[in-house]
Specification:
CATH superfamily: SGNH hydrolase
InterPro entries: SGNH_hydro_sf
Largest sheet: 6 strands, mixed
Shape: globular
Number of domains: 1
Organism: Clavibacter nebraskensis
Protein name: SGNH hydrolase-type esterase domain-containing protein
Number of helices: 7
Helix content: 40-55%
Strand order of the largest sheet: 1-3-2-4-5-6
Strand content: 5-15%
Order of helices and strands: HEEHEHEHHEHEH
Length: 228
């Protein structure tokens, strides 16, 4: 048993407490698909939690979902529609269930933003790797041969306001373990690439996230995604 596993009950309680305290934080309440006009738009599936969930804004137009579509369009001069599947409760073990029978073959690219809650709850490294391999294999099998799979690394855990504490530091070290495993899996997966996600520049009056934060992250991801 790795030493970090002894801390798991405490860290799971820490995560549960943070989630209970965040019930009043704004989050998108509208449809999680950004539709666009234009002939044969590019289509991206955004899968995940954490930054993909949209903490701090009330519409997906201002979350990573909306900004990603606009950022890709700015680089390709083509319309880009983005569909988000996920929630803060999604984790590496439940991601495939969230996808369900959704037609993943309809997309030109899949962007995976996953792991913060697994890091905070200290998901065992072997479990993380096994489930992550299953997710990558399923995406390769269900996407079209030309589609790309982009995996974003985790943002620094302590850059998430509720986790900016000593316990968040424990989660950050675990996030680094999980990211190393994810990168190894991605490097061995056809059509997949791994891209680190930087720390957000939070606005003083928007500690949980804002349109500006999601626009910055979207530009990072779009630089890797375009052209589709």
């Amino acid at each position: 048993m790795h030493a970090y596993e002894l801390l798991r009950p405490m860290m799971r309680a820490f995560y549960a407490s943070a989630m209970a305290a965040s019930t009043g934080v704004p989050k998108p309440v509208d449809a999680a698909s950004i539709l666009v006009e234009g002939e044969d738009p590019d289509a991206i599936l955004l899968l995940g939690n954490g930054p993909a969930h949209g903490w701090g804004v009330v519409t997906h137009q201002l979350s990573l979902t909306g900004h990603l579509g606009r950022a890709v369009t700015a680089r390709t001069d083509r319309p880009c529609a983005v569909t988000f599947i996920g929630d803060e409760t999604m984790n590496v073990s439940s991601a495939l269930a969230w996808i369900g029978d959704h037609d993943v073959a309809a997309y030109d690219a899949v962007v995976v933003v996953l792991g913060i809650n697994d890091a905070v709850r200290l998901t065992r490294v072997p479990v993380w790797r096994e489930r992550f391999v299953e997710l990558m294999d399923a995406l390769v099998a269900s996407t079209r041969p030309s589609a790309r799979i982009l995996v974003a690394g985790m943002q620094p855990v302590r850059s998430v306001t509720p986790y900016d504490s000593a316990l968040g530091g424990i989660a950050q070290r675990h996030a680094e373990r999980l990211d190393r495993e994810a990168r190894e899996v991605v490097d061995a997966t056809e059509r997949a690439s791994f891209h680190p996600l930087g720390a957000p520049e939070l606005e003083p009056d928007r500690p949980h996230g804002s349109s500006r934060v999601y626009r910055s992250w979207a530009r990072e991801i779009a630089d890797a995604a375009a052209p589709l």
